[in-house]
Automatic annotation (TrEMBL):
<dbReference type="Pfam" id="PF13414">
    <property type="entry name" value="TPR_11"/>
</dbReference>
<dbReference type="InterPro" id="IPR011990">
    <property type="entry name" value="TPR-like_helical_dom_sf"/>
</dbReference>
<keyword id="KW-0732">Signal</keyword>
<feature type="signal peptide">
    <location>
        <begin position="1"/>
        <end position="28"/>
    </location>
</feature>
<feature type="repeat" description="TPR">
    <location>
        <begin position="61"/>
        <end position="94"/>
    </location>
</feature>
<feature type="repeat" description="TPR">
    <location>
        <begin position="163"/>
        <end position="196"/>
    </location>
</feature>
<keyword id="KW-0802">TPR repeat</keyword>
<dbReference type="InterPro" id="IPR019734">
    <property type="entry name" value="TPR_rpt"/>
</dbReference>
<feature type="repeat" description="TPR">
    <location>
        <begin position="129"/>
        <end position="162"/>
    </location>
</feature>
<feature type="region of interest" description="Disordered">
    <location>
        <begin position="258"/>
        <end position="281"/>
    </location>
</feature>
<protein>
    <submittedName>
        <fullName>Flp pilus assembly protein TadD, contains TPR repeats</fullName>
    </submittedName>
</protein>
<feature type="repeat" description="TPR">
    <location>
        <begin position="231"/>
        <end position="264"/>
    </location>
</feature>
<feature type="repeat" description="TPR">
    <location>
        <begin position="95"/>
        <end position="128"/>
    </location>
</feature>
<dbReference type="Pfam" id="PF13432">
    <property type="entry name" value="TPR_16"/>
</dbReference>
<keyword id="KW-0677">Repeat</keyword>
<dbReference type="InterPro" id="IPR050498">
    <property type="entry name" value="Ycf3"/>
</dbReference>
Length: 281
């Protein structure tokens, strides 16, 4: 039976902020990356074919760049970096290879070198939107929000078609409490890629912060439908159910989030708040 949403209590506002801080710090999942783990494109068979292309034309920087992407998608970061480096040695103006190497360096937590590579890419091509987005995401996760916002805005001003620019700017608006602007950016990201779960989850948090529980529910359920293995999504669903007054179902969502990631604090806090409403065995 439908329950009217209850007013946000100070405790649940704190819980929403807790989820918001974690989500804003970590949402850059595989569907929003330029190089993501892709078993097909990073398969041994595909890499073997790309190696044949490299051997056939060892002075072609694009061949190394394409194989580097495949290595990155397979998780072979050292080989990916080596191929991007070779591509750059063959063509010092190959700004895409700098940006691709930066993304892999970021995935290995070498953020200083990644920023340096993004800077090189942008020096060669000041209108390369992907480099602004990649560098901005490093700044965002590092808490350098003003610099991050500048990079995402620059990419948007360049009419980027990459949803990450809007998604990540939305996260910055969200952490600053500008939830209506965040919702607009998440909506734009969704319009560009309706199968990416992160913008739905981000928008759900902002809807919930505005006490729009029904739209928050629709969005977080969609995010879970697209990727049911993310603890932060289930914890947000728990908050939505808690806002509806359905603490029994909220407990189950928080408990599932804790199973997916036992260290995820918002899920543990949610379990503690709703434990008394847990269904009996």
């Amino acid at each position: 039976m439908f329950r009217s949403p209850v007013a946000l209590t100070a405790l649940r506002r704190s819980a929403i902020l807790s989820v918001l801080l974690v989500v804003a710090g970590c949402q850059s999942g595989p569907t929003l990356q330029s190089i993501s783990i892709d078993q097909a494109q990073g398969s041994a068979q595909n890499i073997q074919s790309l190696t044949a292309a490299v051997n056939a034309d060892p002075r072609n920087p694009e061949a190394y760049n394409v194989r580097g992407i495949a290595y990155g998608r397979s998780g072979e970061n050292d080989r990916a970096i080596q191929d991007f480096t070779t591509a750059i040695q063959l063509d010092p103006n190959f700004y895409q290879a700098y940006a691709n190497r930066a993304l892999v360096l970021r995935q290995t937590n070498d953020n200083a070198q990644a920023v340096a590579d993004y800077n090189r890419a942008l020096k060669i091509n000041p209108n390369y939107d992907s480099a602004y987005i990649g560098r901005g995401n490093i700044y965002r996760v590092a808490g350098r929000n003003r610099e991050a916002l500048g990079d995402f805005q620059r990419a948007i001003d360049l009419n980027t078609t990459d949803p990450r620019a809007y998604h990540n700017r939305g996260l910055l608006y969200q952490i600053d409490g500008q939830h209506r602007q965040a919702i607009e950016d998440f909506a734009t990201a969704i319009s560009m890629d309706a199968n990416a779960p992160e913008p739905y989850a981000g928008r759900a948090v902002s809807y919930l912060a505005l006490n729009n529980v029904e739209d928050a529910s629709d969005d977080i359920n969609r995010a879970i439908q697209l990727d049911g293995n993310r603890a932060e999504f289930w914890a947000t669903q728990g908050l939505v159910l808690e806002a509806r007054g359905d603490k029994g179902k909220a407990y189950r969502s928080f408990a599932h989030a804790s199973q997916l990631d036992p260290s995820y604090q918002p899920a543990k806090d949610g379990v503690s708040r709703t434990r008394g409403s847990a269904p009996s065995a």
